[in-house]
Write a structure and sequence with these properties.
The complex is a heterodimer of chains A (359) and B (504). With 359 residues, chain A is mostly helical. Chain A has 14 helices and two strands; from the N terminus they run E-H-H-H-H-H-H-H-H-H-H-H-H-H-H-E. Chain A has a single domain, classed as ABC transporter involved in vitamin B12 uptake, BtuC. Classes of the chains: A mainly alpha (359), B alpha/beta (504).
């Protein structure tokens, strides 16, 4: 049969080709899927990857949308990537994103209708706090009791979803909302609104922050000693201890940092594009960001581009939904395939295959 | 001439073996006579293991021929080789720990043999060759020496004409070595030939009749080890002249640098060793050697000294300040430096390049600018200095640590620590798996910093190394440290008794 042999040197070209090939394969196999769903695969692929950027009808709306959808993905993925580098696996960014939104929104709505310039910045800080507190649960359990952070962070997503439902139906429900679920709309509360930076585009502060964070994380990871400590821990906990670092502190930091960014993404979303806390507030950015982090090779610049590509599939996916009646789940499968193929190609990036003949 | 051919048991002619574009064996020809103890001498990577694997049928040569008892010999597998009369004892034991010694011997047989019949012949064997083993003990409970005896019995039970021993003494105490040598000499006197692989020159002079020296895959020549000094043989093996470092000469006794008192420290895992009653001191310009067979507490002691493990009932005084609560970084900041045994994954990280590996120990914060940003120009300069000064063979400072050979990485690690100009340097197995020339360089570098006033604790399983450069010696046995004595006052036979103390 055949045998996998680790490559001695992983070529940078190959490791860059991995993500590109996985996008290509996702298009190919996704096209087959679309065909069996009764949709013209070429039209669907074109509508996902091409039309949002190039079509005259859609692009004026779609291009800003790509950045709006990309912003939370990039923010969350940046935070996750730092942990992943340290071998700390926060899978629950979705929950931290929800909790950030609930924390921030609860703070702002508790002051309604008071107007003050301090409300918005404090609300953002509360959002960050909410996300980081939620991530501190797995962090503390991991550090103090060595409980697996993957399981705890993931399970807490479902707890967060229940709290979201409770908030939407209970303590945050709009008193003037005629009994419908969901909070007051923050965009109509000017002190708390994450308003547009460029009129008519929907581009908000979160988009700007996501770009700034790319730079910030690049500097952190490649120019700062903390980034080195994180990398050292991920590569060898023993060497990290020998260096004199406290692995527990670093693990705690990585988890809370990723929670904070997820919380930031959550508060930006709820005060901006989403507008209100509601049962269906979360749309899976926290999970998709895991794909973005790996697609971007855990590199901040890579994550920026991966976030944009992933946002494209969201925006293009929406187009296919109302133009071609493709089900929303098909787009999720499409996104999942991206990670699947990336991981598969990574095998060939890191290993070569040797055929063993019968002889 | 005729006599010689008749006397030849095994011979190989022009054996070639390539791995990729590395010539592991280059035109190798050797003769092993009957009843001969024939040493195969060479550094790591000289091609010794490849050659014996070919003889034992584990590898097939690319070209060349072999004869055994004057017949063509082309073993396709170890089973073939064993059937024709070749036995082998590996450096790393291939025993099943949850089974008893007897069950392990039974499992190693190619032919079916009745259990009672086997037990009888095993007992006869072990009695006549001094291979004492409790057959019903589980392998997991046996010492390294006992395990090796099980391996030897397992090989001898097949009545081999040629027995291959691959670095057999690397895991033994001096006392166990001596009893092994007796066994081997008796075997040889009764007609068995032995192919003995080692890079320890002294034991080869004691034991072997002939030594074939291998260098870079080729045979350099055949020598009589009894007529040569260890140094001459070593120089042939390395291919250039060697210098022998001497212990530091302290003109007058300096100040005490470190004193360590350990009452008792329990291990973190059930396989660890409990450290007990350890009391040691080191002075300026002094090298304290800590010897002992692997697994007697070296790793545990090192962790206490670096600060990676903190424990109660431990007192460490560095220049009269208590430092036992400090972490490794804090200890480095006040002048200590460490080089642990494991190069990859502890002292250095394979996936990181040499620049990043320089960052692992940075007590003077010379690579840090304000706010913790990395000073890359300083880092580059420092790393390149180490590479140059310690003759580290690498493509560049940005090469991955894993791309360096073991010896070169060790030079880098030791160089990195010495470059911090420590007042106290604690090093575990500085030359393990390092070629002879690099080893001499590393020892020389350690002696040099001792001569400029540093105190050194040298933990090593290489007794020759310890005796060569230490002023004082102590031995670890089962987590106990013997009282340090002046190296000049200690006799080799005493060492065996101290080291063997409880474990032999």
């Amino acid at each position: 049969m055949f045998k996998l042999i680790p490559r001695e040197n992983v070529s940078p070209v190959l490791s860059l080709l991995g993500p590109l090939f996985s996008v290509g394969f996702t298009m190919l196999i996704g096209g087959v899927l679309f065909y069996f769903l009764g949709v013209d695969p070429f039209a669907a692929i074109k509508m996902i990857f091409w039309d949002p950027l190039m079509s005259e009808t859609f692009s004026t709306y779609s291009i800003p949308q790509i950045f709006i959808k990309g912003a939370p993905l990039i923010l969350i993925a940046l935070g996750l990537s730092v942990g992943f580098k340290a071998n700390v696996w926060n899978i629950g960014a979705e929950g931290q994103y929800i909790m950030g939104a609930i924390f921030g929104a609860s703070f702002a709505l508790s002051l309604y209708p008071l107007e003050s310039i301090f409300i918005f910045p404090t609300m953002v800080l509360m959002g960050i706090l909410g996300g980081s507190l939620w991530s501190m649960i797995p962090a503390l359990l991991k550090v103090k009791l060595n409980v697996n952070e993957i399981l705890v962070s993931l399970m807490l997503v479902y707890v967060a979803e229940q709290i979201l439902a409770l908030a939407s139906l209970g303590f945050l429900r709009n008193p003037d909302g005629a009994g419908f679920p969901g909070s007051r709309n923050l965009s109509q509360y000017s002190s708390a609104s994450n308003s547009e930076l460029i009129v008519g585009t929907g581009i908000h502060l979160g988009v700007l922050l996501s770009l700034l964070m790319v730079v910030f994380f690049y500097v952190l990871l490649f120019r700062h000693s903390l980034g080195f400590k994180i990398k050292l821990l991920g590569n060898s906990p023993k060497a990290s201890g020998f260096s004199g670092d406290n692995p527990n502190k670093l693990i705690f930091l990585c988890l809370t940092l990723s929670g904070s960014l997820a919380g930031l993404a959550g508060i930006m979303e709820v005060a901006g594009p989403a507008g209100q806390i509601n049962i269906d507030f979360n749309v899976g950015y926290g999970f998709t960001a895991i794909i973005v982090a790996f697609l971007g090779r855990l590199n901040p610049i890579g994550i920026f581009f991966a976030g944009i590509v992933m946002a494209l599939t969201y925006v293009g996916g929406e187009l296919t939904q109302f133009m071609l009646n493709l089900p929303a789940a098909a787009i999720q499968v499409f996104q999942g395939m991206l990670l699947f193929f990336l991981l598969s190609f990574d095998l060939f990036v890191h290993y070569k295959i040797k055929l063993k003949g019968n002889k | 001439m005729n006599n010689k051919i008749e006397n030849t048991l095994f011979q190989c002619r022009a054996i070639n073996k390539e791995f990729g574009n590395v010539k592991a064996n280059d035109d190798i020809s050797i003769n092993v006579s009957k009843s001969q103890i024939h040493a195969l001498l060479g550094e790591n990577g000289a091609g010794k293991s490849t050659l014996v694997k070919i003889i034992y049928g584990l590898l097939q040569p690319d070209s060349g021929s072999m004869t055994f008892s004057n017949k063509d010999f082309t073993p396709k597998s170890p089973k073939d080789a064993r059937a024709l009369g070749v036995g082998m004892v590996f450096q790393h034991f291939s025993l099943f720990e949850p089974l008893t010694a007897f069950e392990n011997i039974l499992l190693g047989l190619d032919k079916e043999l009745g259990e009672n019949e086997l037990r009888d012949s095993v007992i006869t064997l072990s009695e006549s060759y001094g291979l004492e083993v409790n057959l019903s003990s589980f392998i997991g409970d046996l010492s390294a020496g006992e395990r090796q005896r099980v391996e030897i019995i397992r090989a001898l039970i097949q009545k081999p004409k040629l027995l291959i021993m691959d670095e057999p003494t690397s895991v033994l105490t001096p006392f166990e070595c001596e009893s092994l040598f007796k066994t081997l000499k008796k075997l040889a006197s009764e007609g068995t030939s032995i192919l003995y692989i080692s890079h320890k020159l002294k034991e080869i002079a004691d034991l072997c009749d002939t030594a074939s020296v291998l260098r870079k895959g080729a045979v350099v020549g055949e020598y009589d080890p009894k007529k040569m000094t260890a140094r001459e043989l070593g120089e042939i093996m390395v291919g250039q002249s060697l210098f022998e470092p001497k212990p530091p000469v302290a003109t007058n006794k300096g100040d005490r640098v470190l004193s360590v008192k350990i009452n008792e420290v329990k291990p973190d895992t059930q396989f660890g060793v409990t450290l007990k009653n350890i009391d040691l001191e080191v002075y300026q310009s002094e090298i304290l050697g800590i010897g002992g067979v692997a697994g007697n507490g070296q790793e545990e002691l090192m962790q206490i000294l670096t600060g990676e493990k903190k424990a109660q009932r431990v007192s460490i005084k560095y220049m009269n300040n208590n430092v036992e609560m400090l972490n490794p970084r804090e200890r480095r900041e006040i002048g200590l430096a460490f080089a642990p045994e494991e190069r990859l994954g502890h002292a250095a990280v394979g996936n990181l390049n040499l620049l990043e590996n320089s960052l692992i120990t940075d007590p003077k914060k010379r690579f840090q600018k304000k706010m913790g940003f990395i000073n890359f120009s300083e880092l580059n300069e420092f790393t390149n200095q180490i590479i140059e000064k310690f003759n580290v063979k690498t493509t560049s400072a940005s090469a991955l640590a894993s791309s360096l050979s073991g010896g070169n990485l060790q030079k880098f690690v030791v160089g990195r620590e010495i470059a911090q100009k420590p007042s106290l340097f604690i090093v575990n197995q500085p030359t393990w798996g390092v070629d002879a020339l690099s080893a001499a360089n590393i020892r020389q570098a350690i002696v040099e910093i001792a001569n400029t006033g540093a105190a050194i604790i040298l933990i090593s399983q290489d007794l020759d190394e310890i005796l060569e450069i230490s002023n004082k010696v102590a031995f670890l046995t089962n987590g106990n440290l013997s009282t340090p004595t002046n190296t000049a006052d200690i006799k080799t036979d005493e060492i065996g008794a101290i080291m063997g103390g409880i474990s032999a």
